[in-house]
Amino acid sequence: MVLIREATAADWPAIWPFLHAIVAAGETYTYPQDLDESTARELWMLQPPGRTVVAVDESGTVLGTAKMNPNHMGRASHIAGASFMVDPQGGGRGVGRALGEHVLAWARAEGYRAMQFNAVVETNTGAVALWKSLGFEIVATLPEGFLHPTEGYVGLHIMYQQL
User: Fold this and answer.
1) Residue pair 156/147 in contact by the 8 Å Cβ criterion
2) Largest Cα–Cα distance in the chain?
3) Which domain holds residue 113?
4) What CATH number is attached to the domain comprising 104?
5) pLDDT values of the chain reduced to their tens digit, one per residue, 163 residues
6) Distance (Å, whole) CA 19 – CA 157
7) Which of 32, 36, 64, 115 pairs as cysteine with 95 (C-beta 3.0–4.6 A)?
8) Is the Cβ–Cβ distance between 123 and 117 less than 8 Å?
9) Looking at the 3D structure of the chain, how many domains does it have?
10) 99 three-state secondary structure
């Protein structure tokens, strides 16, 4: 069972180790691989109108996290965006799907008209398949938009779902 709740400052020490490992691997995020903790915390732990949540198991262990926010400003602020991190040690338990469903429900409840993911690395096939299964479509791919540490230059998908 996965419970999703608001992230608090007390959750950061559980988030940072897996966020750091995922970013340092350089395979799925456009963040600098040497992202320091204070910058990461500022980027991830959003203030309103953004929101950050954690997915926890029955014991309260943080298994993953998501942040959601307006993807654009001004006259395009009706489009939501989101980012997700799941602790690799907790993978395969439906955490990513639960976070994705939660974020979509939040965006609908907040009145967003669509959700857009700006940079889904095409070699991140698990994420691409998950987002497609939740109703997202690839609307464009920036060829060679991401330098993967082992695959070289690969595409970055822009994925979209009308709400």
Assistant:
1) no
2) 43
3) 3-162
4) 3.40.630.30
5) 899 999 999 999 999 999 999 999 999 999 999 999 999 999 999 999 899 999 999 999 999 999 999 999 999 999 999 999 999 987 788 999 999 999 999 999 999 999 999 999 999 999 999 999 999 999 999 999 999 999 999 999 999 999 9
6) 21
7) 64
8) no
9) 1
10) helix
